[in-house]
């Protein structure tokens, strides 16, 4: 009997704003946790304990279920040297793998080019959100950016098919002559044509989709539902990207952080339940990352920008567990009051690129990094 091997798929969920590591994966047996978190510390009886050292935030029950099933990898102390503690600069570094200079090419843009060098599929990579993340940006590489899958495309409000087709034909003739008339016009023209093709392809996903899983009524759940729809439509998409936030908890952190992790945890649970219901989970992993962790000592109401953080890898193919060491909270071991990163984020990318996607990681991440073996 012949079998058809499924292509590996990566879903990235960016936790924008700097998620608080210490209140997400909580070192509840470390007495310095209580000393440093008089305002925002989580009561021990509420913590979802994973072992005798750490536990998850109390609103992360679905994530704990994944961990208990061996389908969630927790990556400790993620970051890079000399964190600038700036949202914009840190995200640029994560997106381009260029910590020492301003990068312009996204690491997943480079990956997309490796997967589909001849641009045979304009939906090889799909981003859910209103704008293109720099991680996906690379000149000449098409990426479909979808804000709302049900209304994605040009002129979707025009109901009469013949009229709509005539107008789209005019758009095609408008874009096409710009190709070859200069770098900027070439880029704009090709982007326009690629967007039209992507809209035509992706419109079938909601039409074909049916599921017994009811997603929560949240923005992050809507994005993951859209990703599930496209994935299940078997359109050849290999990389999906979306974000949620903001996790920038300078004040009123307790209620804010609770709600964020309720929304993320429930959405992730629904997403994987949906995939499993349709036998579509065995070739999907999800990376959840944030640009940096937060200051060890709270500020009286929240936490300020820090350095070392936490990342998660979820999915049926994942070798669950903890990877790396939780950074020391001893005052003499902190860097400007922050946890010192112990795992370079490019190590995570390297494992994903090589052990999951089957790509050469070095040109994607700009170097050679030791791989945590979560695949």
Lay out the secondary structure:
Elements: E1 9-16, E2 25-26, H1 31-36, E3 48-49, E4 55-56, H2 61-68, E5 72-79, H3 87-96, H4 107-115, E6 125-128, E7 144-146, H5 161-175, H6 183-202, H7 204-208, H8 219-232, E8 239-245, H9 253-277, E9 284-289, E10 309-314, E11 321-323, E12 343-344, H10 345-356, H11 362-365
Parallel strand pairs: 1-8, 1-9, 5-11, 5-12, 6-7, 6-8
Antiparallel strand pairs: 2-4, 3-4, 5-10, 9-10
Helix pairs in contact: 2-9, 5-6, 8-9
Describe the protein's architecture and organization:
The chain is built from eleven helices and twelve strands. The model is unreliable at 154-160 and 183-192 (pLDDT under 50). Helix 8 runs parallel beside helix 9 (253-277). The two termini are 27 Å apart. The protein has helices at residues 31-36, 61-68, 87-96, 107-115, 161-175, 183-202, 204-208, 219-232, 253-277, 345-356, 362-365, and strands spanning 9-16, 25-26, 48-49, 55-56, 72-79, 125-128, 144-146, 239-245, 284-289, 309-314, 321-323, 343-344. Strands 1, 5, 6, 7, 8, 9, 10, 11 and 12 form a nine-stranded mixed beta sheet that branches. The protein has a three-stranded antiparallel beta sheet with strand order 2-4-3. 34% of the residues lie in helices and 14% in strands. With 375 residues, the chain is α/β, with parallel strands linked by helices. A hairpin with a 5-residue loop joins strand 3 and strand 4 (55-56). The chain has two domains: 9-148 and 212-365, Alkaline Phosphatase, subunit A (3-Layer(aba) Sandwich), CATH 3.40.720; 153-202, no CATH class.
């Amino acid at each position: 009997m012949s079998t058809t091997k499924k292509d590996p798929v990566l879903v990235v969920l960016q936790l924008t704003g700097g998620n608080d590591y210490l209140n997400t994966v909580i070192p509840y047996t470390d007495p310095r946790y209580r000393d440093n978190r008089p305002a925002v510390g989580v009561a021990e009886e509420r913590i979802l304990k994973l072992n005798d050292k750490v536990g998850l935030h109390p609103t992360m029950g679905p994530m704990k279920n994944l961990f208990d099933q061996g389908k969630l990898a927790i990556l400790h102390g993620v970051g890079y040297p000399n964190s600038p503690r700036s949202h914009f600069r840190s995200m640029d570094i994560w997106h381009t793998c260029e910590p020492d200079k301003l990068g312009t090419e996204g690491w997943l843009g480079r990956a997309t080019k490796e997967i589909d060098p001849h641009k045979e599929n304009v939906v090889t990579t799909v981003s859910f959100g209103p704008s293109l993340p720099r991680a996906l940006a690379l000149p000449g590489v098409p990426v479909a950016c979808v804000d709302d899958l049900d209304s994605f495309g040009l002129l979707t409000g025009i109901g009469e098919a013949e009229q709509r087709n005539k107008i789209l034909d005019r758009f095609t003739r408008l874009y096409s002559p710009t190709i070859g008339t200069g770098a900027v016009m070439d880029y704009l023209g090709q982007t326009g044509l690629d967007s039209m093709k992507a809209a035509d392809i992706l419109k079938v996903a909601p039409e074909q989709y049916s599921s017994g899983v009811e997603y929560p009524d949240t923005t992050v759940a809507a994005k993951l539902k859209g990703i599930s729809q496209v994935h299940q439509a078997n359109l050849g998409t290999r990389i999906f990207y979306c974000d949620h936030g903001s996790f920038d908890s300078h004040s009123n952190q307790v209620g804010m952080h609770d709600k964020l992790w309720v929304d993320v945890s429930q959405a992730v649970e629904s997403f994987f339940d949906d995939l499993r219901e349709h036998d579509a989970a065995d070739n999907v992993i999800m990376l959840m990352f944030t640009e940096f962790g937060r200051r060890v000592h709270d500020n009286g109401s929240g936490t300020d920008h820090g350095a070392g953080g936490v990342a998660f890898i979820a999915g049926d193919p994942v070798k669950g567990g903890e990877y790396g060491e939780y950074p020391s909270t001893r005052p003499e071991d902190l860097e400007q009051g922050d946890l010192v990163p112990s795992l370079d984020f490019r190590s995570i990318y390297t494992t994903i690129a090589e052990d999951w996607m089957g790509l050469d990681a070095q040109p994607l991440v700009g170097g050679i990094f030791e791989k945590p073996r979560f695949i």
